[in-house]
């Protein structure tokens, strides 16, 4: 079946994560079900664009957001591109499809004061969970790594002597990120607490729960949301906002865009440039303070 062949292609040739592949597969299967229900079409490989357009209209009528619709049509476009690549179809029916307009996502980073407050002034419990939570926040802010990268971080990935951590990013791409002295202090403190656990089921992984199992994404989200809610009134308090904060603060301090790109593990500068708009206000301040014309 073509859909299964596409799934295998994404997994084994493109090295996409299971989560990403499942999302692609679900989108395509939703479209296939629409074709079967509305048009009695069993094989979606031979559809034309008019059917895709009617599906988009149906999604809009069902109050599906433009952002979600764009994701679904992008999955479908990738699927037909794959069919074209292996010679099952001559042309991609979505080749001229235009994405629906979406409002720009405003992601407000935490301020330097907020991060100083949570990491330098807040008192974490002197317990396994308290030390672990402190390190989770510190590591996300100090390295800019993704939540999934932190969850899957292994003991063997951390070299405290050389102050480096090896991160396995999207599409199995590895990158090295330097560690700050304060992060290393917290790492050593946490590793001692980790050794005191009665049972450790997931030995290779650094971040564990009290029961000795590898932490999961929701737990990391809850940690960030809980502690940052004590110092920030921002609506969004998530691991992704910490990654956003890491990039913004580096750029505000004059870091080179290419260097930030490498630290974040982005494949192109376009992905990194979304963070630059947050640095404009800081650049304006520097410009106003530094330019000779402003002193007259």
- When the domains are counted, the total is 2
Termini, distance in Å? 73 Å
What is the CATH topology descriptor of the largest domain? hpI Integrase, Chain A
Number of strands: 3
The chain-level mean pLDDT equals 89
Report the principal-axis shape: globular
Please write the string of helix (H) and strand (E) elements: HHHHHHHEEEHHHHHH
Structural class by SSE content? mainly alpha
How is the biggest beta sheet arranged? 3 strands, antiparallel
| Helicity range | 40-55%
The CATH class label of the largest domain is Mainly Alpha
User: Biggest sheet: strands side by side, in what order?
Assistant: 1-2-3
Compact description:
This protein folds into 2 domains: 2-85, DNA polymerase, domain 1, CATH 1.10.150; 112-287, Intergrase catalytic core (hpI Integrase, Chain A, Orthogonal Bundle).
Structure description:
The protein is mainly alpha-helical and 296 residues long. The protein is built from 13 helices and three strands. Helix 1 runs antiparallel to helix 2 and helix 6 (128-143) packs across helix 10. The radius of gyration is 23 Å and the shape is globular. It starts with a helix and ends in a 6-residue tail after the last helix. The mean pLDDT is 89.
